[in-house]
Specification:
The protein is an alpha/beta fold and 435 residues long. The chain is built from 14 helices and 21 strands. 31% of the residues lie in helices and 20% in strands. Helix 4 (84-101) runs antiparallel to helix 8 (255-264) and helix 13 crosses helix 14 (405-418).
């Protein structure tokens, strides 16, 4: 038998980590839960860390990888399995995390280097030691993991998935057989229904152009990996085709570094994007519209009459986006454009819920700028998650994780109607379930 220990991301979004307790223990992801006041980490003890045989990393977002180096600080000898793009991306992501935390992190750069030294690169659809990674469609290099377990059972862990193709990536692979399924539920509620890519893009461009028409600036808080690159690719296409006014697009934070990694891993992008990068001079990742701030206080950006600014972090928990927010928020001609998920306890969630002032650097900042939310998500919505569950052949146990508890429970109820004879679980942090 295999026992699954739910160490995080159970009834919550953040700190994804699931321990498969068996002869050779396997850990699926090891992230942090970012919040305005205090971070939370997976409920892992030193004994578990020492016994790990393999760690599998689904993708390079902090809520899935941010705690991984701590395991090497605790002297684990486990190999960390991931795709090449994920390995490339975590190098810049974890370095940035350490820089922002300024010594408050649970590990140091030497622990990150130890993780990288113990990384084993695996390609999609390559079977190795009873493990296969499949494209998850979420961000560059994001993978679902299928594991062969004792007793001739199989388990599929989705990580974060997106069934729809985006401008840069194909959608997640479906129809993978498994006895047990661990699936995310970020947008698991019935009311979570994403617009089509065409409709969400049209809404996005309409909001941006409306702001530019009133000589305002558009501030887009973005995750450095995933949404940032999708947005830039889209903005560049619209400006080049004349469908959006040409203004500077400023990249602040890690977005520009990550853009280069996307380009260097072009073989993991959609075929038409590969073709555009590799066989023509029309490289969307090297646009003349992209600008980098040249002054430490960002005065060159703020002095622009009109501009689009993409800055980290995506939930406004830190990073350069707060500097822009402080200066732009009091002015009604500007717009804050929220494009990604905003977790409970974050500044982004406060603004989406209607906050009209925020405390930044001990100053109360009035929010007079327009706040607009346009889902430009890298996650599947309720119906797509249900479709994935329906198409998982032979599933007997479904574990719904990585979602606020109410959303996970709504998805569970729908999943039970789809798989009447399967056991559907909505676990809590710390729970252990045998399969």
């Amino acid at each position: 038998m295999t026992t699954i220990h739910f160490l995080g991301a159970a009834g919550e979004v953040g700190r994804s980590s699931f321990l498969l307790e068996q002869k050779k223990p396997v850990l699926l992801d090891c992230g942090v839960k970012l919040a305005e006041d205090e971070e939370e980490y997976p409920v892992l003890d030193a004994r578990d860390i020492q016994r790990l045989d393999t760690i599998v990393l689904s993708h390079a977002h902090l809520d899935h990888c941010g705690f991984l180096p701590y395991l090497y600080r605790q002297k684990t000898r486990a190999k960390a399995v991931m795709t090449k793009p994920t390995r490339d991306l975590i190098q810049v992501l974890l370095a940035d995390y350490l820089r922002i935390n300024q010594g408050a992190s649970p590990y140091e750069q030497k622990d990150v280097l130890e993780l990288l030294k113990n990384t084993r690169i695996t390609e999609f659809n390559e079977v190795s030691n009873g493990m296969t990674l499949y494209p998850a469609g979420h961000i560059l290099g994001a993978a679902m993991t299928r594991l062969e377990l004792p007793g001739k059972k199989t388990l599929l862990y989705t990580g974060d998935i997106n069934l729809r193709e985006t401008r840069l990536l194909d959608g997640a692979q479906t129809g993978i057989p498994a006895d047990a399924l661990i699936i995310e539920s970020t947008y698991g509620a019935k009311t979570d229904k994403h617009l089509s890519l065409k409709a969400s893009t049209a809404q996005l461009m309409k909001t941006i152009q409306k702001t530019l028409d009133r000589n305002g600036k558009v501030l887009i808080p973005t995750f450095a990996i995933g949404r940032g690159q999708e947005l830039l690719f889209t903005l560049e296409n619209y400006m080049r085709s004349g469908l959006l006014e040409t203004v500077p697009i400023y990249l602040d934070g890690m977005v520009n570094k990550v853009l280069r990694i996307y380009r260097h891993n072009a073989l993991y992008l959609k075929r038409e994007v590969q073709h555009r990068i590799l066989t023509s001079d029309d490289d969307p990742f090297k646009s003349e519209h992209y600008k980098i701030p040249q002054t430490k206080d960002r005065s060159d950006v703020l002095s622009e009459e009109k501009a689009i600014i993409l800055a980290t972090s995506g939930m406004l928990n830190g990073g350069p986006v707060l500097h822009y927010l402080k200066h732009l928020a009091p002015h009604p001609e500007n717009t804050l454009l929220i494009v990604g998920y905003q977790a409970k306890g974050t500044r982004g969630r406060e603004l989406v819920d209607g906050a009209r002032e925020l405390t930044l650097d001990d100053h109360v900042v009035p929010i007079h700028m327009e706040i607009t939310e346009t889902k430009f998500s890298g996650h599947s919505d309720h119906q797509e998650l249900l479709q994935f569950i329906r198409q998982t052949q032979g599933v007997k146990d479904v574990f719904i994780v990585h979602g606020e508890k109410e959303k996970a429970e709504e998805l569970a109820q729908a999943a039970q109607r789809v798989h009447k004879n399967a056991s559907i679980h909505v676990p809590s942090v710390g729970e252990q379930i045998k399969i």
